[in-house]
Design a protein that fits this description.
Layout: H1 3-23, H2 27-83, H3 87-94, E1 107-119, E2 123-130, E3 140-147, E4 151-163, E5 170-192, E6 199-220, E7 227-242, E8 246-251, E9 266-282, E10 288-299, E11 302-306, E12 320-324, E13 327-339
Helix pairs in contact: 2-3
Length: 340
């Protein structure tokens, strides 16, 4: 390459370098450009944050509006349901009481029942006078004492009552009931040590007892649907009826002589009380229910009067007073009842 050409090339390169140097911004210009970009980024961040806050506020307002509409609709539906129900049930619904989950009280109810159990022994005494002639040592007072045996009984009866709700757990009720105890054949051996000679009597007392009681019963609500345990107690009266009583002297033996022969029947009223505990099972929504229970029954003292001894071959006697002590019974019963 010639010197002239080289000079031209070098001159061109120098001119290009000068032009390029003129296009490069200064440090001050670069700083201003960087600061402007930072300002722009900051403004964008502020706008983005504000947009997010506006969207969040809009979502909150929409949720509140939806909740308000739903609550208003629920109150309207509850008011319509309350208006369509009975007053007591409506109050429970409006007050948000858990009425649907609790066993309802029975209101008025009636039931029939039956069962069996045991009768305890009791003290018994037989008092009278045998009018022997004075020459034979008479008259002779008889005051024989002993105890009846224990035995089994069967019974059946009915009750009528009214139950209401008290608080959230209790179901008190008042009721009247009557039942009949049968199969109660009492037997006793009595000894009289005060006569001319020691005497013993073998007695039988076929007994039927009718019991009438006023009861207070308290049921307990449970989490088990349709099952209600209860306890109760009552007082009243019992009619103790004895038909065909016999009193045979076995020492010294008087064969074929019933000392009550002129009147072997007697009936008296006495005190009665009971305690009971059991449970009932509702039969769906029919208002009917089954129940089973244990009862302790106490029948008070009873004083019976039987006829005098009237045989041609036997000395006449006074009427016989026979007194029984209180008698305890342990009974199991089952039955069915109905609400109405």
């Amino acid at each position: 390459m010639t010197a002239r050409k080289c000079f031209i090339v070098v001159a061109g390169l120098m001119a290009a370098s000068v032009a390029h140097a003129e296009d490069i911004p200064s440090n001050a210009e670069l700083f201003r450009m960087l600061k402007a970009q930072q300002q722009t980024i900051s403004e964008l961040r502020t706008e983005l944050k504000q947009a997010k806050q506006e969207r969040r506020a809009a979502s909150t307002r929409e949720a509140r509006e939806v909740a308000t509409v739903a609550a208003r609709a629920g109150r309207d539906a509850a008011k319509e349901a309350v208006a369509a129900t009975a007053p007591a049930q409506a109050y429970a619904m409006y007050a948000r009481a858990p009425a649907a989950s609790l066993a309802a009280s029975r209101g008025a109810y009636i039931g029939v029942f039956g069962g069996g159990g045991s009768r305890g022994s009791s003290g018994v005494s037989q008092f009278g006078t045998a009018f022997f002639p004075e020459i034979a040592g008479g008259p002779q007072a008889v005051n024989a004492t002993g105890r009846t045996d224990s035995g089994s009984v069967g019974f059946g009866g009915a009750h009528l009552g009214y139950e209401w709700a008290y608080g959230t757990h209790l179901l008190p009720a008042v009721e009247v009931e009557g039942f009949y105890l049968a199969g109660n054949q009492r037997h006793a051996t009595l000894a009289n040590p005060t006569g001319l000679a020691e005497q013993s009597f073998d007695n039988t007392f076929p007994t039927r007892t009718t019991v009438v009681l006023a009861n207070m019963v308290v049921g307990f609500r449970t989490p088990y649907q349709g099952i209600t345990p209860y306890v109760g107690g009552g007082i009243g009266a019992a009619n103790v009826s004895i038909k065909g009583a016999t009193s045979t002297q076995i020492a010294p033996l008087e064969a074929g002589i019933n000392h009550f022969n002129s009147n072997s029947d007697s009936s008296v009223w006495t005190f009665a009380a009971q305690a009971k505990a059991g449970a009932r099972l509702a039969l769906g929504g029919s208002g009917a229910y089954l129940f089973g229970e244990y009862r302790y029954l106490y029948v008070g003292d009873a004083n019976h009067m039987f006829g005098s001894t009237a045989y041609p071959s036997h000395a006449p006697t006074s009427p016989w007073t026979t007194s029984f002590g209180g008698t305890s019974h342990h009974l199991a019963a089952g039955g069915i009842g109905f609400n109405f």
